[in-house]
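Holo prediction. Input below; ligand is 2-acetamido-2-deoxy-beta-D-glucopyranose.
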Amino acid sequence: MPRNIKTAIFAISYIIISVIILLINYHHLNRKENLMKQAQGDEKSNQKTGLGNKVTENIRLLPVASVETQPITTDNNSVLMSRDEKGWRRLNCGPSKLFRPISLSTDIGNLTFYGFLSAEYDRTVPERALKGRMFEKKEIESFLTLSRDLPLIDVGANVGLVALQAALQKRTVVAIEPIAANALRLCRSVLDFGHAGLVHVIQNAVSSREGHVTLATQAANTSTLFTVNEAGRQFTHDLTLAYAIKLDRILEMLPFRRAALKIDVESHEGHVLEGSRDLWKTLDVPLVWMEWQHVKGRATFGGQFVVDFMTARNFRPHHVISGKLLEGDFMSWPFTVLWRR
Ligand SMILES: *[C@@H]1O[C@H](CO)[C@@H](O)[C@H](O)[C@H]1NC(C)=O
Ligand SMILES: *[C@@H]1O[C@H](CO)[C@@H](O)[C@H](O)[C@H]1NC(C)=O
Ligand SMILES: *[C@@H]1O[C@H](CO)[C@@H](O)[C@H](O)[C@H]1NC(C)=O
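Structure of the complex:
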């Protein structure tokens, strides 16, 4: 081979090898920089534990088909998440020191959850618990016994009275709660009292349509909630904002395909059903706890809508404690109804 061709081949090989080495180095540098950025981000978000609720990461949505084997929420870092128009995000829990642990001894075990430092803001559930009484004790015990072999979807989880007891039964729970003060406490309870990996908290409202909603709470009654931006409803309560998702949304992340459902959303139960039409096709739900008292008399998505919706899916209403079939005028049914197939 002539000498100048040999030199040319040598030179070209040299250039190609140099470029490859450069590319490999560049890739490694980039990776390292990304890892460092990520680590710094994690550190920052760990330091920031205030109620500011820093968004730490976008969560990749899983195609429904693979959900069963790959739940997105399996580690302690993804206890609390929220969905908006852009996607799922992980949020940080509230700091323990803002709250105080309240313990109740129940049939299932030692139920411990966080109340505020002052019971003044915490009338319905925590204040009663401080006196050793459980809100809706008999109803909850009955529901937990009947549904004990099923994972639980808890819509309107509040501070986790039902969700945390289901976790004591070693059940997987998806707990949805729109009020930050409640969701952050529930998230903290999950981490501090040994339920990480079992209870996943979603900080969102649930409604017939998705979008930003205004919620009304009472300062002395964080468990009480009404949705304000519905025409014609007047309130004198404190206002807060939330992003409403349809219940169908959670099909994107559910780690199971069969579950008991609890819906306790202060008169909005019918709206939740309206936004759940796909859920019933995909998920096997044999048992539904539903607060009846506030929804039954509503004109839109009220008692009649709920009865028609549930009947069309072969459910019949039962008394949650006695188990008796409920008949007659639905306006006379009890505070809570248990729908069974
Ligand atoms: C219940 O659990 C809490 C938190 O783990 C603990 O502080 C408390 O002492 C327990 N109470 C009983 C009666 O075991
Ligand atoms: C999750 O947190 C609990 C309670 O703090 C702890 O016992 C458990 O080891 C943690 N699990 C993982 C996977 O980090
Ligand atoms: C809290 O809300 C519940 C449900 O609306 C109501 O029955 C109760 O009286 C309220 N308590 C206070 C202290 O406002």
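The CA atoms of residues 7 and 13 lie 10 Å apart. That is the main takeaway for now.
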